[in-house]
Amino acid sequence: MVNGVSYEKIAQEGSNISSLEIFFSGFPRMVGLSIFPRLCQLTIVGQNIKYIEGLECCPLLWELWVVQCHLTGISGLQNCVQLEKLYLYDNQICEIKNLELQVNLEVLWLNNNCISHIQGLNTLQNLKELNLADNIIEKIGHSLDPNVSLQNLNLSGNKISSFKELTLLACLPNLRVLALKDPTSTPNPVCLLCNYATHVVYHMPGLQRLDTYDVSSKQVKEAAESTVMKKIMYYNMRVRTAQRNLAETRFSLMERKKTLLQLPEECVRTLSHTHLVEGSSDRCDPTTDISHNPAMESKILIKMEALRERLTIWTRRLDELVSCYERDLAQATNMMAYTVQFLLMELESVGNIRLEEGCSTDPWFTSCCDLLLSRFSQSDYRVHGITGIKIDRVIRIYNSALRLRFEDKLHSLLASEDTGISSQNYRRRLEHLFYLAETEKNSEKEELLCILEEGFKTAEQYKALGREGAIPLSNSLSVTEQPRMEQTLRLASHCNSMDTCFLPVGQIIVSKVFVGHSMPIREGEPVDRSSHPRVCSVYRNVDTKCRTAVRRPRSSKTNTGPECSPRRRRWFVFDHELVLPEYIIYFEYITGNHEIPALPGRSTDRQEAPSNDIILDKEVLNMEPVLKALPKLLSLDDKILLNVARANVLSQITVLNLHGNSLSKIKEISHLTALRHLTICFNEFRRLDDISHMPNLEFLDVSYNHLVTLEGLRGLGQLKELDVRWNKLTKAREDTAVLRKHTPALLKLDTRYNPWNRVPRLTMLGRLTTLTHLDDVVVAEEEAADAVHMAAGSKINEACLLAHSRTNSDRPRSLSLLSTAQLLGLLNPAPWGLSQELEPDWTAKITALNLDSQRISKLINLNKLVNLRWASFNDNDISKVEGLDSCLKLEELSLNNNSISTLSGLSKLHCLNKLSVDGNQLSSLDASVLDQLPNLSFLSVENNRISSLHGIQRVRSVLELYIGNNEISTSRDIYYLKARV
């Protein structure tokens, strides 16, 4: 009766049976298996078994089938440690668990169950075949990473919709067969996307079969490789275009800033000079002596106070203009960062996520603008002085996977008899709503990107974050913006700033929403699906006003007309699959009084020349007494120096004030060996070469000149205070290096109002460790200690190499524009633990090194990295390419955003095929160096000072060249590229 053995003899013969099959014969529980102690194969099909049990006496079992048996879980296998094949398909299993001891398992079939998460397989390192078809799995994650022996994987009939999930399978080194849409199952949503097969074949080059198709041929692999490389090149060019646009915007902003700052700077200069003259009037005119004239002294004090008040007003205006410039630059940079992220998202999704920027000729653009304008009410913003909104940018979101999910869910609802919604009237339940972001708890940028890629979180996820258990939406701009407005006002109040342009550019996600059957709820009533099981959404009314009909985007095809629109509402939708993000709208608020000018082209009501302030300045400048200053000193000699200093011999002069002249050179100053205090502000100095080797000089004021560099300062060992405000210094790194070397006793330094790029305060303090005051702010002990600690960590040492190096032998297959060193650092942990004992030749194993943004000033301690292939040193303070002579296997090198002026130091790197030195100080392409790089196929030298393409003809194998934002002035240079075409 069982395997040819009669029921009567089963007790006697059971001990010899190694294989047992039970089909459709009424076996509700797994009992009596102790009769078969030698059982190796057990097959149970079509029973009503809920649990696996009774296998304690079958330790030899190596193959088990329990299929079509209504199993609800995996259990009872703890004694079957020799199990190699396990088939549990066509059951009701919801969770993969209790398989930790089955370390010999090679085949596992769990298809056609109710599994939603891949888990519990960590110990199965011998697993070769895994069938999880026809479950409800949405994510793969890193759950299969330990299963390094896996060769055959079937995930057909699940809900995987993202290419990123498939990319994670590339870490399985032995995977040869993959099924995501085999003929017996429905395809995963990801299989319906464009370029699905290309994406999979590229990321898994070892794959032999995909969805029953043979993909092992060389032609298939090469076609996938070629397609991906073309896409990477295309998106690399688009990203660089966005970066070039930012550079142009930055230049426009800088020019605008210069224009706006011209008047305030002139006023500050005039007022400061007069204030200095009045404060030192006894030295301006020897015939004037106010010490015996109290009335004159009182007038001077009153005038000086008035001058200080005017200076305070103009300085505040300057700071406001600079702050607005920095805010506009930050907004432009933020916009560029979003654009780059959008492009990278398109690349990673192989075009299945597209973000299209609209213009006024696009019908959907106009509809979106009308939608937002119709949902703006000036009365809601009157308290903030906001009179309107200006739409800057509209981006249409096209996410194939999310759209398919939305349409499938909607069709299934319409097909269901329980909903009671007919296909004719369902459009009346479609709305275009704004998403209510949580500004305090989430990163706005990360949340936006997550929504664009994966859609909105589930109701359970929102509830886990401490929010209400549904997707929060609104049909009103003011309701949507309320959290951001409140947060910004709180920050402004904490900073004691009520700036009228306090709100940055706003962004609104517009989503198509099927609200379905909905019902109102009261304020304070919790939002939870368990409390409202029969509706798709709930809402709270914000007011009861009847408003003009809301105009929806034309793409929604919903009715519009002069009817009363719904009240302002907060909507809460329970099913995230019924919310489809469709547009992002960037806008700014218009206020009645624009106090601060903004981006070029923006309108402003503020006059650029505040005539009333000029009049007030003149009144203060003309206040009594108007002292007559001495004639300007166009040159110096010993007699003039003695006269100005009121001394008899040069060796007696310890204090010298030469402000307000037209001096550009003071070579005679070297004779004043006793000089301690020197003021040369308000002159014409461009360099300070004459101020050197003055051993007693303690104070130097060079403010309000035209200094372009501090080079020339030498041997000022006792200098304690230095004022270089209001000059034209641009090279912060070089100038601080001069000070560190030649002013070792410097205590106070004021560098404000120079056009150099703002250097982080801690970086400056780390370079000049003796400072007690920087830019008129006291240096706290903790701040100084942090700066020293930061500076100490900026050298390439053993700890640095251990933390930032990798030992991978191959570049990861990834649709990414990152360099190999950056990508490996992102995807893989460091190979060395903190307490791990290092091998003597550990540095020789390093293949990748990523030292971006480590404040490194010099490339040292790299001589033992003989197998280094990929290196990145972006965003540091490197001025010379050196220390790489031993890294002869280097293939990729990135040195973006440093201070490099020449390519010398690369001549020995004959294997180099990719070089990036964007954002440096290169003035030419060094032909002698490029001639030594025969394999260089990629060269990027954007944002430098290159004036000619001469030398590029020496790069014999270049395929990609990026040289935008340089100083090439003639189109004839393009002929240097003829040999490359």
TrEMBL record:
Q: Keywords for this entry?
A: Leucine-rich repeat, Repeat
Q: Which PANTHER family match?
A: LEUCINE-RICH REPEAT AND IQ DOMAIN-CONTAINING PROTEIN 1-RELATED, LEUCINE-RICH REPEAT-CONTAINING PROTEIN 9
Domain of life of the organism encoding this protein: Eukaryota
Q: In its UniProt entry, what is this protein called?
A: Leucine rich repeat containing 9
InterPro entries, sorted: Leu-rich_rpt, Leu-rich_rpt_typical-subtyp, LRR_dom_sf, SDS22/Internalin_LRR
